[in-house]
Specification:
This protein has about 350 residues and is of the alpha/beta class. It folds into two domains: about 1-175, 3-Layer(aba) Sandwich (Rossmann fold); about 190-335, Nucleoside Triphosphate Pyrophosphohydrolase (Alpha-Beta Complex), CATH 3.90.79. It contains twelve helices and 13 strands. The protein has helices at about 15-25, 35-45, 45-50, 60-75, 90-100, 115-120, 130-150, 160-175, 230-240, 280-285, 300-305, 310-325, and strands spanning about 1-5, 30, 80, 105-110, 155, 190-200, 205-210, 220-225, 250-260, 270-275, 295-300, 330, 335. The strands form three sheets. It has a six-stranded mixed beta sheet with strand order 8-6-10-9-12-13, sandwiched between helices. It is elongated.
C-alpha cells in the first residue's frame, strides 16, 4: 500500500514521514522530487524552463506511479510518499494509475493554521528565493483545500509534534478511514470496444461526468464486456454510472470512431449513442458511484471544448453534427472518412 502524506510547505510532511517510517514495519519513504531530479539530469533545463512546477511535466506524473510500483515490488512494507499534490487532475492521474495496478492508496492531508505555516517556512534554513516560492504556494493550497478535505483524511498538525502526527496517521491507515475509494480501471494492451451515451437538457447542453481515476471529464459509458452487445453495454454503464434505467430501444447510434493505441491505455472502437433529453425528474434521480465518478454537469460547447482532450472533443463534435443531420458517422482517429 501507499500512504500519501499531502499538505503544503510547512505542514510537516517530511518530519512526519520519518516518524511514520518507524511506526509502520518494513516501510520505505519515497520522495517523488527525486524523479524530477532524474528528469532534469536526463532532459536538461529546457523542459523545466517552460513550466512553473516540475509536476506540470507529463513525464513526472507518468514516472511517479511506475517508480512507486517498482519500489513496492522490491520492498516488503508500505511506501510512504511525502509530497504536496494540490491539483485535483494530477491527483486523479497519479492515483488512478496506482489503482490500475491494484495498489491501495491512503491519502492524508497535514494541515496547520496559516500563521503557523508561514512561521515554519520563514524559519526554515533554505535560500531566500526558495523560501518565497514556498510562501507563494500557500495561496495555491488555500484554493485547493475544498477538494483536498473531501478526498483526504485531515490531520491538524498545529499543536502536534511530528511523532504525534505520525501516530494519528497510523490510526487512520489501520482503520481504513484514509483509503481512497477508486475503481480499478486496469489498463489493457489489447484494443477494446467501448460505448458512450450522450444525454441532453432542455437547452441542448450535453451531460459529461468527472471520473476520480483519471484527469479530465468524460462521456458516460465504458468498455463492452465479453459476449455483450455495445448497446447493452451502454444501458448497463448508464445504470451503473448515473443510476438511470434507459431502455435499449431508446438509444440511437450516432457515431463510430476507431481510436489508435495511445500510451498505457488501449485503443479500439468507440461507439457513441444518443440517449435523448433528460427530464427534470430524471436529472433529480442521477446517482453517481463515489469510487468512480466525482460529479456530473450539463455543458455547452464553450465548456466542453475547454475540458475535453482533443480526441474526445473531435468525437463529440462529430457526434453532435450527426445528431443534427439525423445520420450515423464514422471516424478513424477522430478524422472523418469518405463514408463518415
Amino acid at each position: 500500500m501507499i500512504v500519501w502524506v499531502n499538505g503544503t510547505f510547512g505542514a510537516g510532511k517530511t518530519s512526519t514521514a520519518r516518524e511514520l517510517q518507524e511506526l509502520l514495519p518494513d516501510s520505505t519513504v519515497f520522495d517523488p522530487e527525486t524523479v524530477a531530479v532524474y528528469l532534469r539530469r536526463v532532459l536538461g533545463e529546457e523542459p523545466f524552463a517552460s513550466v512553473s512546477d516540475f509536476q506540470d511535466l507529463p513525464a513526472w506524473r507518468s514516472l511517479v506511479p511506475d517508480v512507486a510500483a517498482a519500489l513496492l515490488a522490491q520492498q516488503p512494507g508500505a511506501l510512504i510518499v511525502p509530497m504536496t499534490l494540490l491539483r485535483q487532475d494530477y491527483r486523479d492521474e497519479i492515483f488512478g494509475a496506482l489503482a490500475a495496478r491494484r495498489i491501495p492508496v491512503h491519502h492524508l492531508l497535514l494541515q496547520a493554521e496559516e500563521t503557523i505555516l508561514r512561521k515554519r517556512i520563514e524559519g526554515d534554513e533554505v535560500e531566500r528565493q526558495s523560501r518565497q516560492w514556498r510562501l507563494d504556494h500557500i495561496e495555491d493550497y488555500r484554493q485547493a483545500r475544498a477538494w483536498l478535505e473531501q478526498d483526504a483524511a485531515t490531520v491538524d498538525t498545529t499543536e502536534l509534534t511530528p511523532r504525534q502526527a505520525a501516530e494519528r496517521i497510523q490510526e487512520l491507515v489501520r482503520s481504513g478511514a484514509a483509503r481512497c475509494r477508486i475503481v480499478e480501471q486496469v489498463a489493457g494492451s489489447r484494443d477494446t470496444v467501448a460505448a458512450a451515451v450522450l444525454f441532453f437538457d432542455d437547452r441542448g447542453r450535453v451531460l459529461l461526468v468527472d471520473p476520480v481515476y483519471k484527469p479530465g471529464w468524460e462521456f458516460p459509458g465504458g468498455v463492452v464486456e465479453e459476449g455483450e452487445s455495445p448497446r447493452d453495454a451502454a444501458v448497463r454503464e448508464v445504470a451503473e454510472e448515473l443510476g438511470l434505467a434507459v431502455p435499449a430501444t431508446r438509444l440511437r447510434l450516432l457515431l463510430t470512431d476507431w481510436e489508435p493505441h495511445r500510451g498505457p491505455r488501449s485503443g479500439g472502437l468507440r461507439l457513441v449513442f444518443d440517449g435523448g433529453t433528460l427530464s427534470a425528474e430524471q436529472r433529480e434521480q442521477l446517482a453517481l458511484p463515489e469510487d468512480e465518478l466525482r460529479g456530473w454537469r450539463f455543458m455547452d460547447r464553450e465548456e466542453w471544448t475547454a475540458l475535453l482532450p482533443e480526441n474526445k472533443r473531435d468525437r463529440l463534435d462529430a457526434a453532435l453534427r450527426c445528431r443534427r443531420e439525423c445520420r450515423v458517422g464514422y471516424l478513424e482517429a477522430g478524422e472523418p472518412t469518405a463514408a463518415g
